[in-house]
Amino acid sequence: MSPSRESAAPLTKPAPLSVTLRINGESRTLSVAPWTTLLDLLRNHLDLTGTKKGCDHGQCGACTVLIDGRRALSCLTLAVMKDGAEITTIEGLAKGDELHPLQQAFIDHDAFQCGYCTPGQICSAAGLIAEGKAKTREEIRELMSGNICRCGAYPNIVGAIEQAMGGGR
Amino acid sequence: MTAHIGTATSRVDGRAKVTGAAKYAAEFTAPDLAFGVVVSATIPKGRIVSIDAGRACAVEGVIDVLTHANRIRMADKDEAYRDEVAPEDGAPYRPLYDDRVHFNFQPVALVVAEDEDTARFAATLVDIRYHTEEFATDLHARREQAFKVDKPVKPRGDATKALSGASVRHDADYGVPIEYHNPMELYGSTVLWREGGKLVVYDKTQGVQNVQRYVCGVFELKEGDVQVMSPFVGGAFGSGLRPQYQVVLAAMAALKLKRAVRVVLSRAQMYGLCYRPATIERLALGAREDGTLAALTHEAIAMTSQHEAFSRNDIGWGEVLYASANSRATHRLAKLDVPTPGDMRAPGAASGVYGLECAMDELAVALKMDPLALRLRCYSDRDQDKDLPFSSKRLKECYQQGADAFGWSKRSPKPRSMRDGRELVGWGMASGAWEAMQMPFATRIVMTANGHVEVASATSDIGTGTYTIMAQVAAEMLGVPLDSITVKLGDSTLPKAPVEGGSWTAASISHAIVNAADDIRAELLKIAFTMQDSPLQGLSAEEVTLADGAVMAIADRSRSVPMADIMRHGGMDRIEKERGSEFENDDQHAHNTHSAIFAEVKVDEELGVIRVTRIVSAVAAGRILNTKTAASQIMGGVVMGVGMALHEEATIDHRFGRIMNANVAEYHMPVNADIHDIRVIFVDEEDRIINKMGIKGVGEIGIVGVPAAIANAVYHATGKRVRDLPITLDKLLG
User: Fold this and answer.
1) Looking at the domain that runs over B18-134+183-266, which CATH code has it been given?
2) Into how many domains does chain A fold?
3) Are residues A84 and A121 in the same domain?
4) Where are the domains of chain B?
5) Pairwise CB contact (< 8 Å): B234 & A55
6) Which pLDDT score is estimated for A6?
7) Going by CATH, does the domain composed of B439-580 fall within 3.40.50.980?
8) Which of B22, B147, B382, B414 is most deeply buried (CB count within 10 A of its CB)?
9) Of A92, A123, A157, at which residue does a domain stop?
10) Residue B532: pLDDT band by 50, 70, 90 thresholds?
11) Cβ of A103 under 8 Å from any chain B Cβ?
């Protein structure tokens, strides 16, 4: 028994749309299907694989990037919805060889183990600091709870964010 | 000389991980890359009657739909599918092999397309008809049919008689549900096809050589035809010990289509992989008036699949921790129509010690004794079952230091007697134990005249810090700076290593590195002592050390020769040495790590909401190579233990034999807000017996005992004993 192939007429995919994004300071124009998420655009179309896919359902936070300076889940964002937006991914945080204070703080505090949730944690933390709402460890914990870390580095993540908040440039 | 071993060294792969440069299996690419999306079975047991891929194939960009009916040739013997971690007993599952469905979420087709979106869409169009057969997925319903498995733990004395004669008895069932590893990285493989049918496989795995042998076996390929790589692994916790099916599907598609193929599972599909089996831990303890144990029995009843008998050591931990003249331990398995369970962090111990340590707490209540005092009263200096002393067991120091740091002496013994505003406060404790294992590993060190050192082994770093400890040990042994060392791992062509599991990697790889470094040192000294005008002339090997990139006299560090000069003098641009870990077999001692965990919970009396506000984990695990990454390992184990105690449970609808919460929103895991203060203490433990360096490993011990400490704290806070994990508020209020 081979899988049958005869039963249907050809299905055409939706026509691609043009989208222009400014990604890590560089303007990129791409032609993508309307169903393409920002996450898949970054990973599959631009090979910017620093942004991670952990669930593709907006449940884990691994895909967090900054869109116009605000943290957002790139797996729940269709790329074409963000035409003209400024996107910052983990690849865009360091200035050349100089790490972003959060990146350095994550290393100093051992705020990761496997590293897979880390880009999302760091982007989320950058968004959190920009929001300016979190003042205490308790508030950091609460406002970082959209980013799951299965290795369980949470206390170190909080410590790293405190360091970056205290000594941020 | 810079000391590296035992320091709080930051991860050497840290920069790659915080900049997004670290590449995981599904992030390697090729110009001819195609994307495969798996279609999963929707029944737990039966037969595929028909597969209509017509609509899927009609989608522009779809290349092929692979099924059992059009698959390429695969091995037809079980041996080919039996990887190094497979249970000895049973027939391993064969992905896409035939029309049989053995479990829900089993892969039944692979849609391959030019891009991922298209494959994902087309996969929804594959129409599969099944003939469903009668099935069973409920451990509790099959408890009576469970069969006994052979375990090395021997009965001692007459436990039944001793129990019936004991002045205080406690007897109860403790339940552990199905739990999933849920590493953050989705399971995925990228397989590159090379001319002549050779494969380069990037796979999410804890053992590249295990996967390499498996892929060769399944597709009947020659050893040199398959290279498996896994430089970074986005968490695994045991789920990547056995090869997972996506690597078979990706390799099959690459071989059939003669091009590169990537297959990434969805989060839901990862609930068709392995998991911590649900178990019923039945404990019976009998004590004398003074608290000493007269009898200890432990019966574990666990689930397994129909096709393989998977079991680990749930039982036997009482033999390691407590003295009892009479004991009996049995392990039973109930076969269900599910995927085969697998190793999940501290497999066996996490579940078995949960039952044991809750039972000890209940016994302490019955005896009106402090739970810590009871542990000390029952303390055993020997492994009761093996009847051997321990190579080291500083568990008493764990109890002491943990209790002091926690403030245990201020505990009010009565349940519901401590309070913080509207919250009830509970303090609980538990002991933990794990095996200190070591395995044959090999490593190759290459030192070049420019001062660079490469250390290589086919082991893995799943977040454990292997890269970092390998660099530390090499730097210390060879007297070179950490940043002059490159560590290579996660490549099947490198020197032999088993899967990274069981907490054995740190001890094993360290000794292989020490041995290879010794050989390099010997080579350097041979030349250094005979060089003309050498300031080291007249010294013996014992009188010199390798430090600061030079060979120098220990007594007078000004007498030194740079290693680069020695190599130049010897006419060498590189020294390459490969050695194994070479452990002596010690059958005169039991080898374990130990821990004491103290937990504070606060419970909202009206809502039943539980918060774990403080945990102190005191661990005796021999020599700690890196206090920073090792503490993170323990902390991670504690966090997963919090999940086990309060959150985690995969729930099957037994009418359909299908998990209802196959996602990370409804399968609850701890998030940042769930975790408060965690303090990790490493108790000094010098073990001169276990191995030359006294290393035991820390990957598993962190979780063991944590669920029991929390459960015991919840009882202390509320006076209510919930024995079936997770302790959710409905159980607490019900």
Assistant:
1) 3.90.1170.50
2) 2
3) no
4) 18-134+183-266, 279-437+587-733, 439-580
5) no
6) 56
7) no
8) B22
9) A92
10) confident
11) yes
What positions of B carry a catalytic annotation?
700
**Among B181, B356, B351, B358, residue whose Cα is nearest residue B278:** B351
* Angle at alpha carbon of residue B94, lines to B92 and B100, rounded to 5°: 105
* CA dihedral of A67, B17, A108, A54, whole degrees rounded to 10: 60
pLDDT tens per residue across span B383-418: 999 999 999 999 999 999 999 999 999 999 999 999
Question: Would you give the end-to-end CA distance of chain B in angstroms?
Answer: 63
The rounded mean pLDDT for chain A is: 94
By C-alpha distance, the chain A residue nearest B108 is A3
CATH number of residue A138's parent domain = 1.10.150.120
CA distance B151 to A141: 44
Q: Give the confidence band of B439 by pLDDT, cuts at 50, 70, 90.
A: very high
Is residue B19 within 8 Å of residue B11, measured between CB atoms? no
pLDDT for the residue numbered B174: 98
d(CA B111, CA B565): 60
Q: Is there a contact between B326 and B158 (Cβ–Cβ < 8 Å)?
A: yes
Residues of chain B positioned with their CB less than 8 A from the CB of A93: 19
CA separation for the pair A66, B150 (Å, rounded): 55
CATH number at A56 reads 3.10.20.30
**Last residue of some domain: A92, A127, A143?**
A92
Place of tokens 């390992």: B633
Contact B671 A145 (CB under 8 A): yes
Closest C-alpha to B117, from B54, B59, B66: B59
Interval B444-467: pLDDT, tens = 999 999 999 999 999 999 999 999
Of B459, B472, B467, B455, the C-alpha closest to B508 is B459
Q: Is the Cβ pair A145, B184 closer than 8 Å?
A: no
Q: Inform me whether the pLDDT recorded for B15 exceeds 60.
A: yes
Pair (A56, A78) in one structural domain: yes
pTM of the model: 0.97
Residues 7-46 of A with CB under 8 A from B: 7-13, 33, 35-36, 40, 43-44
> Per residue in B80-108, is it b (16+ CB within 10 Å) or e — as a string?
bbbbebbbeebbbbbbbeebebbbbbbbb
Confidence of residue A11 (pLDDT cuts 50, 70, 90): confident
Name the region of B657 (left: φ>0; alpha: ψ -120 to 50; beta: rest).
left
Q: Which helix (H) or strand (E) holds B194?
A: strand B188-194
Task: Provide the residue range defining the domain that includes A47.
Answer: 17-92
pLDDT for residue B547: 95
pLDDT in tens, B483-523: 999 999 999 999 999 999 999 999 999 999 999 999 999 99
Same structural domain, A61 and A113: no
B279-437+587-733 architecture in CATH? 2-Layer Sandwich (3.30)
A82 CB near a chain B CB, below 8 Å?
A: no
What pairing do the DSSP bridges indicate for beta strands B574-580 and B560-562?
Answer: unpaired
Residue reference for tokens 């298209």:
B118
Q: Which of residues 629-668 of B touch A (CB under 8 A)?
A: 629, 631-633, 635-640, 663-665
Contact at CB, A154 and B639, closer than 8 angstroms:
yes
Residue A2, pLDDT > 60, answer no
**Do the first three CATH levels of B18-134+183-266 and B279-437+587-733 match, i.e. the same topology?**
no
- Beta bridge pairs of residue B264: B188
Residue-wise pLDDT tens digits, A62-109: 999 999 999 999 999 999 999 999 999 999 999 999 999 999 999 999
Residues A87 and A129 in one domain: no
- pLDDT over 70 percentage in chain B: 100
Pairing of strands B453-456, B485-488: parallel
Cβ <8 Å between A57 and B638: no
A5 is a domain residue:
no
